């Protein structure tokens, strides 16, 4: 009997759409739930200090939900017609709003220019993958590889106990023995975007840092 497992079945287009929708909903449940909790506090005729706490919670959670929606629209959505281009400056703003949460900081070394939308979507999805390698927080540094419309990206993740999750490596390499589910769809989708751009994404440990690159 072979000691290796064959990859699990890839989702079809309908299932992939459903899994990505589940991913977006997962990102929004927490801030939207916090808004609901804040409104419930206000409905109970709270003391002034409790009212201030509830309003602050609602403001912060609404800002978080808005940032996540804008990011997901660009990273997972259509973001314009076929062949559309996206401004890397807009991508930077959305990435910072979504990823910088007090634990993770971005160092963005990319020039401001228009790139084909799938390359920008690939970059944003690579950032989400890179974020998962520093569960205790740290810094994500994004550098360009090449120039112009053929530009690809290199992200360096630095943080305490930075790690390379084997399941993500397998999904990026299309060697995962497991069926793609809502937890695994993001790296799977990253690989699909890379293939659409004629690229391959790699994830590897480099000393105490993790490098995710598209080439």
UniProtKB/TrEMBL annotation:
Keywords: Transferase
Keyword Glycoprotein attributed: no
Pfam family name, one: HPTransfase
Gene3D superfamilies: 1.10.287.130, Histidine kinase-like ATPase, C-terminal domain
Domain Histidine phosphotransferase ChpT C-terminal, chain residue ranges per copy: 89-208
Gene Ontology molecular function, alphabetical: transferase activity
Protein name stated in the entry: Histidine phosphotransferase
Organism whose genome encodes this protein: Bradyrhizobium pachyrhizi
């Amino acid at each position: 009997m072979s000691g290796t497992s064959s990859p699990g079945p890839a989702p079809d287009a309908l299932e992939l759409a459903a899994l990505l929708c589940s991913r977006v909903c997962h990102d929004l449940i927490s801030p939207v739930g916090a808004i609901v909790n804040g409104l419930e506090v206000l409905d109970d005729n709270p003391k002034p200090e409790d009212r201030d706490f509830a309003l602050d919670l609602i403001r912060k959670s609404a800002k978080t939900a808005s940032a996540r929606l804008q990011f997901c629209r660009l990273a997972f959505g259509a973001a314009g017609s076929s062949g559309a281009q996206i401004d890397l400056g807009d991508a930077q703003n959305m990435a910072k709003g979504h990823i910088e949460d007090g634990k993770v900081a971005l160092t963005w070394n990319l020039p401001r220019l228009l790139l084909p939308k799938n390359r920008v979507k690939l970059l944003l999805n690579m950032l989400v993958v890179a974020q998962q390698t520093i569960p205790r927080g740290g810094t994500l540094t994004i550098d360009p590889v090449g120039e112009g419309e053929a530009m690809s990206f290199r992200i360096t993740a630095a943080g305490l106990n930075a790690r390379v999750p084997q399941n993500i490596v397998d999904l990026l390499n299309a060697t995962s023995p497991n069926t793609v589910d809502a937890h695994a769809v993001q790296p799977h989708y990253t690989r699909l975007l890379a293939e659409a751009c004629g690229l391959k994404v790699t994830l590897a440990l480099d000393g105490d840092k993790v490098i995710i690159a598209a080439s």
